[in-house]
From TrEMBL:
This is Phosphoesterase PA-phosphatase related protein. SMART domains: acidPPc. The keyword Signal does not apply. Residues 61-177 form the Phosphatidic acid phosphatase type 2/haloperoxidase domain. The lineage of its organism: Bacteria, Pseudomonadati, Bacteroidota, Bacteroidia, Bacteroidales. CDD domains: PAP2_like_4. It comes from Paludibacter propionicigenes (strain DSM 17365 / JCM 13257 / WB4). Pfam families: PAP2 (PF01569). Keywords: Membrane, Transmembrane, Transmembrane helix. The chain crosses the membrane at residues 29-51, 58-80, 110-131, 138-156, 162-180, 200-221.
Length: 222
């Protein structure tokens, strides 16, 4: 068995391990976490902080976030999935009787790379670099990790799909941050952050916490 085959086998084994750790509660929880519209309040909260603090200049930061998501999403879904054409585990005939799918959700045909992972990591990294708040950074990266994990749990991505997406998201965020640093360096000066009111900066953290609380309650009662 060569190195590539070993990696593929490890990838499959880890996928089966994570996907096999299912329960009625986590079926509902991970499905809700993976649903993109669940996190619209979070995105709005981050935009609120940017606009509240940077006023008219926030347009550059908002634009950077939008471009970051577009790049990460299109590279992962628009380019690599059609180029690599790696079947999602949910579409592999040999696995159909083994894996656990939630609510019959199987996703599209191809899985590498995960756009959920690329978008989540890209958004988390770039927004944390912009806000520079420890509580926010910890919370948003925890959110990105749980979001990525949910895709494996739901049976629609292998771990390597997630890793590939995460790398793409990190690169997209780094590129966008680099452009801000080069063309709008005044927005990233240290003194720009000392004036951020802590209650305002923690709005996204509160929204994120309430969103997860809502998902937990929903998962218990469903």
């Amino acid at each position: 068995m060569n190195l590539i085959e070993v990696i593929k086998q490890l990838d499959l084994n880890l996928f089966l391990l994570i996907n096999g750790l299912h329960s009625p509660f986590f079926d509902q929880f991970m499905y809700a976490v993976s649903y993109k519209m669940t996190w619209v309040p979070l995105y709005i909260a981050v935009l609120f902080v940017l606009v509240k603090h940077w006023k008219r200049e926030s347009i550059w930061l908002v634009l950077a976030l939008v471009i970051c998501i577009v790049i990460s999403d299109q590279v992962a879904s628009g380019l690599l999935k059609n180029l690599v054409k790696r079947l999602r585990p949910s579409h592999v005939d040999e696995l159909k009787d083994i894996i656990h799918l939630v609510k019959g959700y199987a996703g599209g045909m191809y899985g590498f790379a995960s756009s959920h992972a690329s978008n989540a990591v890209g958004f988390a990294l770039l927004s944390s670099l912009l806000l520079k708040q420890k509580a926010y950074s910890f919370s948003i990266f925890a959110w990105a990790i749980i979001t990525a994990y949910s895709r494996i749990y739901l049976g629609v991505h292998y771990p390597l799909d997630i890793l590939g997406g995460a790398v793409i998201g990190a690169l997209a965020a780094s590129i966008c941050y680099g452009f801000i640093y080069k063309y709008r360096p005044s927005l990233l000066k240290h003194e720009a952050y000392t004036e951020i009111e802590r209650p305002v900066a923690l709005v996204p953290v509160s929204v994120l916490g309430l969103s997860f609380l809502g998902i937990i309650v929903y998962s218990f009662v469903s």
